[in-house]
Amino acid sequence: MPDNDTPRPWENTDSGVILHAVAPQDLGTAEITPKGRFDAGSYASFDLVYTAGPYGIDDSGSLRVCFRFASDQSNPQFEAPRGANFCTVEASNGAVLQLRWDPKGNVRPWDKTLWIKVVQGYLAEGDTITIRFGVTEDGGPGMRLQTFCEDTFEFRVLSDPIATFNFQPLPEQPMIEIGPGAPERFLAVLPTKRRPGETFSLKVKGEDKWGNPSDRCDQTLKVVAEGNIVGLPDTITLRPGVRAFEFDGLSVARAGRVSIDLQDESGGIVARSNPLMIEDTNLVHYWADLHGQSEETIGTGSAEQYFAFARDLAFVDACGHQGNDFQITDAFWGELNRITATYDVPGTFLALPGYEWSGNTALGGDRNVYFPNENRVIRRSSHALIEGGDAAGTDALTAGQLFDDLAEAGEWDVVMYAHCGGRYADIEVAHDGRFERSVEVHSSWGTFEWLLYDAFRLGYRVGVVSNSDGHKGRPGASYPGAGKFGAIGGLTCFEVENLTRENLLDCMRSRRHYGTTGGANGRMFIDLDAEFDAAATVYTDDPNVFEQAKGTQATAAKMGDIVHLPSGEMQLSGSVETTSPIERVEVFNGERLVHTSRPFSSPELGNRIRVLWEGAEYRGRFRQVIWDGTAKIMGNEVVDAQPVNFLNHDKTLEREGNALSWEALTTGNFGGVDIQLADASAGRLSINTPLIDFDIPIGDIGEDDLFFDETGRLPRFIRVFRLPDTLTCTSHRFSVAVDLSATGDNPIYVRLTQEDGTRAWTSPVYVYR
């Protein structure tokens, strides 16, 4: 990291306009105590002392103490001395100060702002303002720090000493280090699909409560394998000071399924790897998170740290950096290209060049742009946070113009995704299938199946991807932490022959991939085959888009293929291998559910009732749905209750007798509760939430979903169904005859749901008559 007082050429200002009203050295100074390293998500107390410079601070002048948009630390409060995050502010000379906390009180990425205004009196040189964060004298626990790591966490101080409303950052900023806590769980990661005899690695890490790879592991674990893995040690030792461990040179001679358990001294399983399928095949699996940002735009940590985390701590095979274009200066664009070239090592790890075209929603909305090589033209949507304007004349104001400009320049090797973040991609406003090959169905912002349905309705043939769009410096392993984020960042599994940029981009173009909601159990194996009883023509490129698209005569197809089937029937077969037990596999034709396959039968249903809430309020930023509510069981007894997808540790499930209460939110994804009852059918279940209330006989609950809907701009609903008391199946095969519509597209795809709440979606096979 560069010195704190050395600005990098790609850094933006804090005001959007550079007006050096006061020389930086005359703005004053700020010191924070204590300094050093603090655990992510822990409570701490700090004194920040600002000392006025030669100008002092005039009557109605101000200070701002700003924090990054991405930070999920708790907001300061000024009313409850015994509560968490209590803050006091005092001037040494008795000047009267006015305080205001505003989460959008400054220019991004330093949005979150404590605003301190001198309203009576003034400060002279040497006078101080002392800000105490997390005061504990009256019994409060302190200030809760952000839940993710950052080497240089700044309390960014800006001063307006002459009361001109021109806030300038101090040349030296107070900062601390936020590091990982002690490990609370261990993860073991294998590839998902390899060929017999190919070497691979076992990768292991411990994660703290908030999902940060911990450097405090100190344990020897026994290694127990399912299947004959050559080169596997009997034990592995995890030592302090290291955040991840890799064991290379492993191989399996014969086809089949293998996995690895890590056990403690008592034989208890502390980590179970994802399954690895060994197959004699042309295509194998590689995992990627191609969408996220670093601190140079709106994320955390440097771009170099970003790629290092993806490779070394998240264990993904490929990564892309997608900074907002209106924050990427020419200097930073050059730096990004240097970094991707450095980190890209074919066969080991791919760093894909690109950026996020971040146009306003009315102009088309966010798009991810990927290049096969460095030093390509960045066509920005605006220069909102960059000086100088469009001097090169390369800006593309609308998504439609972006597509046209790429076509005019002959840049047919570019691949794009439509995605939903703060702005959402409106693919009805603009879409070009020559470039835009997939839609992002899941990220840390939530789940967006509606974006896929938009594509079906409009006749687009797109694939399904999931990424993190993470801002916390953890690409490939992006957890929601605290605050308003309620989803884990997604991952995409690509089927390619070898790990090269060329193969990866070809895979993206052919849609031969599936997306998952990520997390510890988000690397499942999915294989999908379509068979036809009559001759078909199979395309990779869409013949509706490419006049010269070439088809192949065949009676079978894979995920992502486009199939012309003039007559005949379709049989869809698939296999799924998971770590968490399988709850269901659903087959869809477009938006229509046509088949549900469960790895259990109706007689196996037990006393377990699953209540799930799901949905989003709105397509844009403020999509959170609050599901805070209660459940009451009457005429029966609650034996146990466990949360499902309570991914944000600020949200809790409480049980008191036969009554449950919870705090929960969704952003298009789902959460809920498993209720274990003493009797399978007696009594009634009553649910109360801000959106939906209902009361039903428990005897009416079976394996099929009971839906309770709330009409809105997007689906919001609760569903209730029954499960076996214990699910154990992690291998499942299914086959179903798919009824095809006589006209138009039949987008046939599979959605997998695991017991732990993890989901996956395959890219569709598009079959048309």
Task: Provide a descriptive summary of the structure in words.
The protein is mainly β. The chain has five domains: 24-179, Sandwich (Immunoglobulin-like), CATH 2.60.40; 185-278, Immunoglobulin-like (Sandwich), CATH 2.60.40; 284-519, TIM Barrel (Alpha-Beta Barrel), CATH 3.20.20.140; 529-598 and 730-768, Immunoglobulins (Immunoglobulin-like, Sandwich), CATH 2.60.40; 602-723, no CATH class. 7% of the residues lie in helices and 39% in strands. The chain has five helices and 56 strands. The protein has a 15-stranded mixed sheet that branches. Strands 16, 18, 19, 21, 22 and 23 form a six-stranded mixed sheet that branches. Strands 27, 28, 29, 30, 31 and 32 form a six-stranded mixed sheet that branches. A hairpin with an 8-residue loop joins strand 18 and strand 19 (235-238). It is globular and about 85 Å long. Mean pLDDT is 95; it is low at 1-7.
Short description:
With 769 residues, the protein is mainly beta. It contains 5 helices and 56 strands.
Task: Compile the SSE list and pairings.
Blueprint (H helix, E strand, L loop, with lengths): L28 E5 L3 E3 L3 E2 L1 E6 L10 E6 L19 E5 L4 E7 L9 E9 L7 E6 L9 E2 L5 E5 L1 E5 L7 E2 L5 E5 L5 E5 L3 E2 L5 E8 L11 E8 L8 E4 L6 E6 L5 E8 L5 E4 L3 E3 L5 E6 L13 H10 L5 E3 L9 H14 L6 E3 L1 E4 L9 E4 L28 H10 L6 E4 L17 E8 L2 E2 L1 H10 L4 E4 L24 E6 L4 H10 L2 E4 L8 E15 L11 E8 L3 E3 L5 E8 L4 E8 L2 E6 L10 E8 L9 E2 L2 E6 L3 E7 L8 E4 L2 E4 L2 E2 L3 E8 L6 E5 L4 E5 L8 E5 L5 E8 L7 E8 L6 E10 L4 E4 L2 E4 L1
Parallel strand pairs: 2-14, 16-23, 24-25, 25-26, 29-30, 30-32, 37-56
Antiparallel strand pairs: 1-4, 3-10, 4-9, 5-8, 5-12, 6-9, 7-8, 11-14, 12-13, 15-17, 17-20, 18-19, 18-21, 21-22, 21-23, 24-33, 27-28, 28-29, 30-31, 33-34, 34-55, 35-36, 35-37, 35-38, 38-53, 39-40, 39-54, 41-48, 41-52, 42-47, 43-46, 43-49, 44-48, 45-46, 49-50, 51-52, 54-55, 54-56
Helix pairs in contact: 1-2
